[in-house]
Write a structure and sequence with these properties.
- The protein is α+β, with helices and mostly antiparallel strands.
- The protein is 43% helix and 10% strand.
- It is built from 35 helices and 17 strands.
- A hairpin with a 3-residue loop joins strand 16 and strand 17 (376-379).
- Mean pLDDT is 93; it is low at 1-16 and 730-735.
Length: 735
C-alpha cells in the first residue's frame, strides 16, 4: 500500500475575494500589530497538518475508548488516525488540518463531500508535569459510538457549520442543498486581521490617497476604537469611571460574532451593527447557564460579559485584552487595578485571604474558572460578586466552597455576612425569578414580570424571563408585552415576539406586524415565526412587508441547509402558512439530513395527525425511535396511541417520556391521565403528586388532582388541592 499523502483540500484553498487583501498587505503598514499577532491563538486557530504544526505523537500510540482502540501513526508526510467511522468500522483517516494549540489540539478529517469533521480524539499539549503529552477523548465519562449525535462523524462535530466561521477569515460556507456537498472557501485559514476589521481593500485604497482626511472612515467597514471617554478616578473614588460615554458597541459586537453562544443567520459583513443582525444570541437557558447567570455549558464569553456591571459601566474587551495578541494588558491583579484601586481591593481587608495566595487573585473569586473540553480552563466573564447565599438557596455554584470543599454554602454565606455586613446582596437580582420559572413554581409569574419590567437588569436576563413567562401569562400582561416589543434591545424584542403565539391572530397581528420591518434581522425573523399563522388577518398594505420578511426567513434557513434544524423551521413555516405538501417535504428533508433529530419526526407526525394520517405518523415516530430515545418521540407516540384508543399500549411510551424528562410537567400530567384511564387511579394520583412537588405552579396538574380525588371520594384531598389551585389565581393563562 503506497503512503497516504497529506490532505490539504486544494479546492478549498482558493484565492481571496477581491475585497480581502490578506495579512501580509496589512503588515506593510501595521508592523507592530502584526508582530503581536504572530503566534497568538488567533494566528494558530487552524493550520495545515505538517510536521511543524502537528503537536500530537503520531508514533503508533493507541487510545482505547468505549471498546474502540484508535491508533495514531505517520505514513510518509501524512498523519493517520485509525478509528471508528460513521458505521463503526475501523478505517484510516488522514489528518487534513490542526485545530488550536493550547491546552489541547484537535484534528480535522476531510470527508468526500467537502465536509471537515473534528475528531473527538485530542492531544493534550500541556507539559507532562501538568498531566499533558497524552491522547484523550473529549467525552471520557460518556459512551459515544457511531450512533450517537456527538460522534466525530455526526453533524455536531462538523467544522463547516460548527467551527469554520470563527476559526477562519472571509469564510463562505457554500453548501449545495441539491447535492448535499460543501465547497467551503476562505480568504485566510486562521483568524486574521480582516476577521475583525473587515475586508481591507478599501482601506488600502484609502491609504494610497493623497486626500486621506476627506474620508474619516479610512475605508474601514467598522471602527473598532472604543471612542468616547477615558477611564479616570474621581476624587476619593475606589473605582474608575468613563469621562464620557462610549460612542458605539462595535468592538463588543465584533468580538461577540465568535465569542457568543449564537446561531448564525447571515454571512454578510455587518460589523458595526448589532450582533443580532447576523446571529441569534442564546438566552440564559438551563443547559447553558445557572439561574444566577453563572456558566453551566460552553457559552464562551459574550453572554456572561453582557450580564456584568462592568459591561453596564462601559468596559469593552480591549480594556483588558490586547486585541492583537489576546494577552492581558497587565499581569495578575494589575489588570484589575487599572480601574479598581489596589489599595482598596488588592488587600486582605477586602478579600480576607493571605496576600499573594491563590484566593487573593481577583479572578479566583470574581471570574470562577471551569474546565471545558476536559482540560480547557476558562474564566466566567460576568465578573460577579460571590453570592454563597444564592448557592445555599438555589443550588447555584459557590466559588467559596469550590475552594473550601469541606464547607457548605451556608457556612460561606455566614462568613460573607461577617465580613461585609448583613445587607451584602450585590450581584444578580434575577436569580430567584429565573429559578422559580425554571421550576414551574407557584407564584413565579410576578417575579419574572418584575425582571422583564426592570430596565436596569441585563437584557439577556430580561429576555430569559420573557421566555419563562409563557405559562403565567394573563390578560393583564398585554401592556408589558407591548413595552417589551418596543424595547431598545433586539434580544428582548425577539423574546417578546415568541410570547405573541399565545394571542389570537386578530390581536397578534397589530402587535407584531411593526416588527416585520425592524432594523435588526434577528427580530424580523422572529416576527415571521410569531405571525405566520396570523397572516390572514393582515391588511393588504402590510402583506408586502410580511412576504418580504418570509423571503428573508427562507434565505436565513438556507444558509444552514446542511442542518436538520433549518429544514424543520422551513417545514413549520409552511405548515403555519397552510402549505401541507411543502411542510411534509421539508420535514422529510430534515429527517434525511439527521435521523437522530427528534423534533423533525415529531412535527411530521403531527402534520399527519392534522391530515388524518395517524398510521403514517406512527411509522415516522417508530422510525425516529430507532435512531433516538428522545422523550419527545415517546410522548408523541403515546398521544397518538391514545387517539387510536390503544390506551394500554400508550402507557409505556408515556411512562418513558415522563421518567426521562421529569422537568416537563405536561408529560407527567398526560401519563397520569393515561394511568387513570387504565383503571390505576391510585398510581395516577401518586404520579400527579410527585409532579406537583417538582412544578408547584402547574394548573393542569392541580386541576387533575382536584378532579381525581373528588371522583375517588376523597373530599378532604380534593378540597386541599382546590385551595392550592385557588392560590394560583383564577385568571386564564392566555388573554
Amino acid at each position: 500500500m503506497p503512503p497516504l499523502a497529506p490532505v490539504l483540500l486544494a479546492a478549498m484553498l482558493v484565492g481571496a475575494p477581491p475585497d480581502y487583501v490578506g495579512r501580509a498587505r496589512c503588515a506593510e503598514c501595521h508592523a507592530d500589530e502584526a508582530r503581536r499577532y504572530a503566534g497568538s491563538h488567533h494566528d494558530l486557530a487552524m493550520q495545515p497538518a505538517t510536521p511543524a504544526t502537528v503537536l500530537g505523537r503520531f508514533d503508533g500510540r493507541q487510545l482505547t475508548y468505549n471498546g474502540v482502540t484508535s491508533t495514531f501513526r505517520r505514513e510518509g508526510g501524512a498523519f493517520i488516525v485509525r478509528t471508528d467511522g460513521p458505521d463503526g468500522t475501523l478505517r484510516d483517516y488522514p489528518v487534513a488540518y490542526t485545530f488550536g494549540v493550547e491546552p489541547l489540539q484537535q484534528y480535522l478529517v476531510a470527508l468526500p463531500d467537502g465536509r471537515l469533521q473534528a475528531l473527538s480524539l485530542c492531544w493534550d499539549s500541556r507539559p507532562a508535569a501538568a498531566g499533558g503529552q497524552r491522547w484523550f477523548h473529549l467525552y471520557p465519562d460518556e459512551k459515544i459510538d457511531f450512533r450517537d449525535e456527538l460522534h466525530w462523524t455526526a453533524p455536531a462535530q462538523n467544522w463547516n457549520y460548527m467551527c469554520a466561521a470563527c476559526h477562519s477569515t472571509g469564510l463562505r460556507r457554500r453548501y449545495d442543498a441539491a447535492t448535499g456537498r460543501f465547497d467551503t472557501q476562505w480568504s485566510e485559514i486562521d483568524v486574521s486581521c480582516e476577521a475583525c476589521h473587515g475586508p481591507g481593500a478599501a482601506h488600502v485604497a484609502w491609504a494610497a490617497r493623497p486626500d486621506r482626511a476627506a474620508d474619516p472612515s479610512r475605508g474601514l467597514t467598522v471602527d473598532l476604537t472604543p471612542r468616547g471617554g477615558a477611564w479616570v478616578f474621581g476624587d476619593g473614588d475606589a473605582i474608575a469611571h468613563l469621562s464620557a460615554p462610549r460612542a458605539s458597541r462595535a468592538q463588543l459586537d465584533t468580538c461577540g460574532r465568535c465569542h457568543a453562544r449564537a446561531a448564525q443567520i447571515a454571512e454578510e459583513d455587518a460589523r458595526g451593527q448589532p450582533l443580532e443582525q447576523t446571529h441569534l444570541l442564546a438566552a440564559l437557558d438551563p443547559s447553558l447557564y445557572h439561574a444566577d447567570g453563572q456558566v453551566h455549558g460552553e457559552v464562551y464569553e459574550y453572554g456572561s460579559f453582557v450580564q456584568s456591571r462592568m459591561h453596564a459601566a462601559g468596559v469593552v474587551c480591549g480594556d483588558c485584552h490586547d486585541p492583537h495578541s489576546g494577552a492581558l494588558r497587565a499581569a495578575g491583579n494589575a489588570v484589575c487595578a487599572t480601574c479598581h484601586r489596589a489599595a482598596v481591593y488588592d488587600t486582605p481587608a477586602h478579600h480576607h485571604h493571605a496576600a499573594g495566595s491563590e484566593a487573593a487573585r481577583c479572578v479566583t473569586c470574581h471570574m470562577p474558572a471551569h474546565d471545558f473540553m476536559v482540560i480547557d480552563r476558562r474564566h466566567d466573564h460576568s465578573f460577579r460578586v460571590p453570592r454563597p447565599d444564592l448557592a445555599a438557596a438555589l443550588g447555584t455554584p459557590d466559588v467559596c466552597s469550590g475552594c473550601h470543599a469541606d464547607r457548605t454554602a451556608t457556612w460561606a454565606a455566614d462568613a460573607v455576612r461577617q465580613w461585609y455586613g448583613p445587607d451584602r446582596r450585590r450581584g444578580p437580582r434575577f436569580a430567584d425569578a429565573l429559578a422559580a420559572g425554571r421550576a414551574h413554581a407557584a407564584g413565579a409569574g410576578a417575579p419574572l414580570a418584575a425582571v422583564v419590567d426592570d430596565a436596569t437588569q441585563p437584557a439577556i436576563a430580561r429576555a430569559s424571563a420573557l421566555d419563562l413567562l409563557a405559562p403565567y401569562l394573563t390578560s393583564g400582561d398585554q401592556p408589558r408585552l407591548e413595552r417589551a416589543l418596543r424595547d431598545p434591545d433586539p434580544q428582548v424584542r425577539r423574546a417578546a415576539l415568541a410570547l405573541l403565539v399565545a394571542w389570537e391572530p386578530a390581536q397578534r397581528w397589530p402587535l407584531g406586524a411593526p416588527l416585520l420591518a425592524d432594523p435588526v434581522r434577528g427580530v424580523r425573523l422572529a416576527a415571521v415565526d410569531a405571525l405566520a399563522d396570523a397572516a390572514a388577518a393582515a391588511p393588504p398594505a402590510q402583506r408586502a412587508a410580511f412576504d418580504a420578511a418570509v423571503a428573508e426567513y427562507r434565505t436565513a434557513q438556507m444558509l444552514n441547509a446542511d442542518r436538520a434544524e433549518s429544514w424543520l423551521n422551513l417545514g413549520a413555516l409552511d405548515a403555519r402558512l397552510g402549505d401541507a405538501a411543502a411542510a411534509e417535504t421539508a420535514y422529510r428533508r430534515a429527517i434525511a439530513t439527521d435521523p437522530r433529530f427528534a423534533p423533525a419526526s415529531v412535527n411530521l407526525a403531527d402534520l399527519y395527525r392534522q391530515l388524518g394520517r395517524d398510521a403514517d405518523g406512527e411509522r415516522v415516530l417508530r422510525q425516529g425511535l430507532a435512531h433516538s430515545q428522545d422523550p419527545t418521540l415517546h410522548y408523541a407516540l403515546g398521544l397518538l396511541l391514545i387517539r387510536q384508543q390503544r390506551r394500554a399500549e400508550a402507557l409505556a411510551p408515556l411512562a418513558t417520556a415522563a421518567g426521562t424528562a421529569p422537568d416537563a410537567p405536561r408529560y407527567a400530567y398526560v401519563y397520569a391521565l393515561a394511568l387513570d384511564g387504565a383503571g390505576r387511579r391510585g398510581d395516577a394520583i401518586a404520579a400527579l403528586e410527585a409532579a406537583h412537588r417538582r412544578a408547584t405552579g402547574d394548573r393542569d396538574i392541580l386541576t387533575a388532582l382536584v378532579s381525581l380525588n373528588a371522583q375517588s371520594g376523597n373530599t378532604a384531598a380534593a378540597q386541599r388541592w382546590g385551595a392550592a389551585l385557588q392560590q394560583l389565581g383564577a385568571e386564564a393563562k392566555t388573554p
